């Protein structure tokens, strides 16, 4: 069976000892796009992305796309990555996992009642993120707005992508560990990322706090919450000048 572009690209990455995240950061190709190529979900990648990848690995574009020609026949001596040297520690694909990614536009649809995550899960893009060895339901969400941006190193900024893990409803009745975690709350009020600073287990109310002092605290009843996640880590952040 003839190898696919995804298999050829995967071989190049493994031979160099790179990670998909590293390739994404150095080429400017998003992790979700790179993941689709690697997993053959994108049978005909964008030609611009293909050229960038061929330049980065210093291989023939024809070989990368079709598996034909001389693998080392890339002729441009001015290739932007030709003299790029890095020292990296090899990380295998076993250290990564694919997680569904819920962008801002899909979040709005979910809140309007016509976008159910379970029914449309196959329509979501995926991202490669460092593997979490704790089992559970993971999701990557994109942050919109500045309510959690207090200008410090802990800030959660507009455009950040967070890896979140669902908290089973059986744990909602217990006092939430609001001092140790940030939460992503999906309710009929919206999808928000907040710190929970109070939890009344009798009335089932939680007080949501923003790190940006321009946004006041407010309460929400857990009976109005569809899903509750806690934030594991920031998995992608744009460079800001």
From TrEMBL:
PANTHER family: FELS-1 PROPHAGE TRANSCRIPTIONAL REGULATOR (PTHR40661:SF3), PTHR40661
InterPro entries for the chain: Cro/C1-type_HTH, Lambda_DNA-bd_dom_sf, LexA-like, LexA/Signal_pep-like_sf, Peptidase_S24_S26A/B/C
Domain HTH cro/C1-type: 9-64
Alphabetized UniProt keyword annotations: DNA-binding, Transcription, Transcription regulation
Highest taxon above the source species: Bacteria
PROSITE patterns, per the entry: HTH_CROC1
Listed CDD domains: HTH_XRE, S24_LexA-like
Pfam families in alphabetical order: HTH_3, Peptidase_S24
SMART domains hit by this protein: HTH_XRE
Coiled coil: none
Name this protein carries in UniProt: LexA family transcriptional regulator
């Amino acid at each position: 069976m003839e190898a696919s572009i995804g298999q050829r690209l995967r071989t190049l990455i493994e031979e160099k000892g790179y990670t998909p995240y590293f390739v994404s950061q150095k080429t400017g190709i998003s992790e979700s796009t790179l993941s689709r190529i690697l997993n053959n979900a994108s049978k005909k990648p964008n030609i611009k992305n293909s050229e960038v990848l061929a330049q980065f690995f210093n291989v023939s574009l024809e070989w990368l796309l079709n598996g034909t020609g001389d693998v080392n026949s890339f002729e441009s001596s001015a290739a932007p990555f030709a003299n790029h040297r890095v020292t990296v520690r090899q990380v295998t694909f076993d250290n990564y996992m694919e997680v569904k990614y819920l962008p801002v536009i899909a979040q709005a649809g979910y809140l309007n009642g016509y976008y159910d995550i379970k029914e449309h899960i196959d329509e979501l893009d995926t991202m490669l993120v460092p593997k979490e060895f704790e089992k559970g339901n993971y999701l990557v969400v994109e942050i919109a707005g500045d309510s959690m941006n207090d200008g410090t190193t802990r800030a959660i900024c507009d455009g950040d992508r967070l890896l979140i893990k669902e908290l089973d409803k059986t744990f909602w009745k217990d006092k939430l560990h609001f001092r140790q975690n940030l939460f992503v709350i999906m309710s009929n009020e919206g999808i928000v990322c907040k710190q929970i600073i109070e939890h009344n287990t009798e009335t089932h109310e939680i007080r949501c706090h923003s790190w940006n002092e321009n946004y006041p605290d407010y309460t929400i009843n857990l009976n109005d919450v569809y899903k509750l996640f806690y934030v594991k880590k920031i998995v992608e952040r744009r460079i800001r000048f």
